[in-house]
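Example record

Each entry pairs one chain with its bound ligand, adenosine monophosphate.
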Amino acid sequence: MNVIAILKGKGKGVVTAKSGATLMQIAQDLAKLKIGAVVIVGDDGKVSGILSERDIIRVLALHGPIVLEKQVGEIMTRNVVTCSPADTLNELMQKMTDGRFRHLPVVDNGNLVGLISIGDIVKFHIAEVELEANAMRDYISH
Ligand code: AMP
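Structure tokens for the complex follow.
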């Protein structure tokens, strides 16, 4: 299974924000949409950073609630690891394990075309394992 197959199942929608948004606005988006991260894009729509709930908790613990007035651009992770549509489920798991994060923007020819979360990976991995188990059962019983 690869990223193209996962995006077919979950859709290509990605929640994005501009670097000028405040942390409070992002926190409200995360809560409202029940998601864990937003991809930060420039005026050209290209990925310029990522901000997850962990970043908000980290700066809140360090600086207190005043930090919620800061702009995302000051806090976001700029060095974003991305994946491509051809990457396999195993490659995604490896990237997340190596980088210790739970979100991977999908970039095709420099353009943001999707986002894979660790929840998507678990869901599609289970489906893949079940498919293999069923095929094995069919094979044994025939
Ligand atoms: P997460 O586990 O996704 O909530 O993110 C944990 C930390 O990794 C946060 O500081 C995020 O900004 C950062 N992060 C999340 N996804 C990525 C990514 N694809 N590339 C680089 N950093 C990331």
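The pocket of adenosine monophosphate is lined by residues 36-37, 50-55, 77, 80-81, 99, 101-104 (CB under 6 Å).
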